[in-house]
Design goal:
Length: about 110
């Protein structure tokens, strides 16, 4: 199993693309991709567009992220399980339950527990 952690892709450097940073793997942990669990309360989508494009190509089994508290939840799209695990609400108080999963390395199956 391979887990990829990426810190910051919100830069303007054209030579440093997310695709260069994503070697592939089962799980990617980063920020939200554009248009997937990234909607603010005011309606704006603030996820990373470059990351969204790269995840479509790399196709990890799980893409786990946070940061965008109003986007909490899960979606399964085209073979990728997206998890926005932002559990804090206003004033950074716990508002939501953690998202708990089990991942079977051999079958690549994601089970919510």
């Amino acid at each position: 199993m391979k887990i990829t952690f990426i810190s910051d892709t919100h830069n303007k450097r054209k030579d440093l693309t997310v695709m260069n940073l994503l070697p592939g793997g089962d799980i990617i942990i980063h920020t939200a991709p554009k248009y997937i669990l990234d909607t603010l309360l005011i309606g704006a989508n603030v996820g990373c567009e470059e990351l969204a494009k790269s995840v479509e190509v790399v196709k990890p089994k799980i893409h786990c992220f946070g940061h965008i508290h109003s986007g909490y939840g899960e979606k399964y799209i085209d073979g990728v399980q997206y998890l926005n695990a932002s559990v804090l609400g206003k004033n950074y108080l716990f508002k939501k339950n953690p998202i708990n999963i089990e991942y079977n390395i051999e079958s690549k199956e994601v089970v919510f527990i």
